[in-house]
Amino acid sequence: MGTGDFTHPGWLAELKEKTDPDGNGLFKLKKEYRLDSPFAENDTRFLLTTEISNIYKRGGKVRKVHNVVMVSDFEEAEKINRRLVNLGGNLTSDGRPILGLDSRDLLEIVLDCNENNYFIPAHIWTPWFSMLGSKSGFDSLEECFADLSPHIHTIETGLSTDPPMNWLCSFLDGVTLVSNSDAHSPERLGRNANIFSTDLSYHAITEALRDGDPEKYLGTIDMFPQEGKYHYDGHRKCNVCWDPAETLRNNYLCPACKRPVTVGVMNRVIHLSDREDISERPNRLPFRSIIPLKEMLAEIAGVGVKSKKVEADYFQTVRKLGKELDILLEIPEEEIEAKTSKTLAEAIRRMRNREIYIQEGYDGEYGVISVFRPGETKNFEATGTLFQVQKPASPEKRALINFDLKGIQKLLLQKEQIENLVAEKSENYSVKNADEKTFAGLNPEQFAAVEQTEGPSLIIAGPGTGKTKTLTGKIAWLVGNHMARPEEILAITFTNKAADELRERLESLIKNKTKANEITVATFHAFGLSVLKEFYHRFQRSENFILIDEALRPDIIRSLFNIKSGEAKKLASEISEIKNGTKPETPSFEKYEEELQKLDAFDLDDLIAKPLQLFTENEDARALYHQRFSYIFVDEYQDTNHAQYQLLRQLAPYATSNLCVVGDANQSVYGFRGANATYIQRFAEDYPGAGVFRLTRSYRCSQTILSASANVLNHDSGFLEGLTEGVQVSISEQPTGAAEAEFIARQVVELVGGVSFFSIDSEVTKGDKNDTIGSLSDLAILCRTRNQFEAITKALRDHHVPYQEVGTIPFFREEPFRSFTGLLEAFSMKSYKQALPLFSLKKQTVTDSQFEWAQQKMLELKPVLFIEWVKKQFFSKETFKEAEWERFCILAGEMDSLRAFLDFLALGAGADMHNHRMEAVSLMTLHASKGLEFECVFIPGCEKGLLPYNLYKTEVDVDEEKRLLYVGMTRAKKLLYLTSARSRTLRGRRFQLPKSPFLQSIQQELIQQIKNKPHKKPVEKDNQLSLFD
């Protein structure tokens, strides 16, 4: 018996507590937990299994596939769990975890952990969540698992199919068919099962499944597939149930509601079938179809399956005859009749001979399998009385395939031929484009900006207007037309993620990786760091200087001036303003600078301030960089602060300098960091005669979203033009923050067409996704502050929705990673004497010999192995959360050296942690969302106090808050939800806030109000009982 759910930490802990390994890769219950069995000693063996839900995008479609994994011991289970946590998997939210991971990649992980682990695609035909499902699956095993397909040896048929249905598809000939079912209640164990004739061991079982040897694997026990709730096509609410032929005749449209019907498993099998005769299938292993004993007893008694009478009759029957499966399959009918009743014996005879009546399941409605016509059981019992009644005739024997398969396949072929003919005619009348050249995709405004290659230029680019495309196009134009050598070009961005995107685009455009890599693409801080690595001696630093991040600076100040944390943060802010050139120097500043020199360190502000000082004071250094970089490009120019602006003026001082900047004053949202939008506005003054290019076509937002967001700025939609008119912006007010979060979670589930069987069965969604939404990664929830995350993450977990959190500050800048990184920095210093102050700041006791030992290990080990060593030697196991530590290790594993890793930790931004490949909803702050785009965006907390934000302060830059909401709204391509709550709790304090005044600026014709509808709390049927209680 499979344990299920070994991926859930709580269940895995219980399995460890209550089972013992039997030495053969299986497990037994500890004696104190075993229940007495009336039949024999309770010696059940358990095999470690789990089912994983994979939701991901492949080939332009969202795929939702469930897979079963089997392992032989707890160590292997934990190994897989760690790998899944590394990838952002939330294993605690559900027994069946939902991962934004390709099934093929999950298979690779499972096999990488141990080649003896076993992988089975689950219930492969279920419409919504399976490998071959009609709603979100593939058309073949090979399409799903690609190069790893040969490692799939077994597939699970599911409740709605049986072996003969699968025999219709020749592409399944090479796999063994197994029949499993979820144990939603203990009495349903074994309703689908597999029969082995092997040793009782993990290896013997998996080998039998892998080989399909009929001497070792004897076939399956199946319920009649028509009982499965997705067997036929139809609409449950409209009471429409069709076989595949009827569906074809009605062109898949429900006659009642005119919507497409839910296509069932039988229809899907026929679509993919390539056989008319199932006997052609090699190695057809035996299978036996059953009806659970309780269902037959209920039919005989004319009462419900869960009635007390059926319960009593069931236990009386098994006491007389033995185990249920023996009753259904093995015990002679004469013995059954002698010990129970003629009616039950006849019922079992009919079941064994497939002489049954069937009402097929469809669209989530379970089918009904009967052995008697209504009222027939009374007549049947009467055949033994004084007044003889003719014995009722048995129903006809049910064929394995019970309809005109050949006829349906012919209809499908005709339909396909007609569709191909229509497509062919359309193609003949269409004009085929010639091969697109590198710059053919630019619109006239973009191309005009690209063509200007000499002198300064300003590109004003609103949201979605193709600024990156234009910027990279301009660089590629220079290189491709031999107007500039790649090494002469410097491109500056604000985040590592933006820099990476720029590099990828350039490599694609230039089509020469070597040339593309010769272009210097860096963030402001990374560029400044490269300057300091070249000119460190000018500032009395060594070649091995260290970087002091924003977290460590207040610690240094507190220790240096012997002041409290609050005062230290205030002084740190003042020092930052001095380095950015907006305040004069003070004695405290000079003392701090001396301390940094003693530490052989620069802080983050120095990465801009010191190069600026160098170029201002040293003509040779300035001339070197003028000669080195003839062309300079700057992205997000509106976000530059005073020091960055002055640095650019040193690098491009002349009216004829080849400086190209791209930006949008309406998206300036970093005033709290000293950013000043006036620099973009005065560009024409700094560079008279500069070319000014305005990109007016937004390829992201609909016109409705552009107009609504412009209203927030108290502008009209201005010069921006959307590709489509789009739908109205949705606005919803909820009673509480928790209700708002629940509203958002339900909308997410509905938009993607469900993330689990439960979301469909409980009618949170009908299973049909919004045509606009391709996958979970198409959705984002953008909050003004991280304090809003708590309620939203709870609602997402309640609905089993995968999500990834992204804040302005990355996780590795917070404790305990701050202390850990400080220790790594100390170990990277030249001497123990130099490192001692850092050890003191971090309150770490490290001896001289330990320091030398660490330095030796640092030389011997790769960065990821070294940080594991440091953790083991200097931190307790409980210090770090496992998931965050694994993420930290993954980052380290991507670095060539410890120094590169430490530089990344110092320079990385929160937005750099966003993984656009992860199949999960993005939950992030509005600031962190800058530069990203999504099909659908939710912005909760549209209240005065959050937008604009003034919960804990009196002064607020209202214009910047407007721009921040503008940025959030324009992340949305097609759907936008603005929500608010009449009351909410943040950091333990309850607030009652009015609606944001910004919403009042939006024209009424652009919005639709969504009223708060009360919803029934879904009740999950057949709540699973504890297996061991």
TrEMBL record:
One of its GO terms (biological process) is recombinational repair. Residues 440-702 form the UvrD-like helicase ATP-binding domain. Keywords: ATP-binding, Coiled coil, DNA-binding, Helicase, Hydrolase, Isomerase, Nucleotide-binding. The keyword Isomerase applies. InterPro entries: DExx_box_DNA_helicase_dom_sf, DNA_helicase_UvrD-like_C, DNA_helicase_UvrD/REP, P-loop_NTPase, Pol/histidinol_Pase-like, UvrD-like_ATP-bd. Residues 698-931 form the UvrD-like helicase C-terminal domain. The keyword ATP-binding applies. GO terms for molecular function: 3'-5' DNA helicase activity; ATP binding; ATP hydrolysis activity; DNA binding. It is an enzyme of class 5 (isomerase). ATP binds at residues 461-468. It catalyses: Couples ATP hydrolysis with the unwinding of duplex DNA by translocating in the 3'-5' direction; ATP + H2O = ADP + phosphate + H(+). Its EC number is 5.6.2.4. Residues 492-519 form a coiled coil. It comes from the Bacteria. SUPFAM superfamilies: P-loop containing nucleoside triphosphate hydrolases, PHP domain-like. Pfam families: UvrD-helicase, UvrD_C. Belongs to the helicase family. UvrD subfamily. This is DNA 3'-5' helicase. It comes from Mariniphaga sediminis.
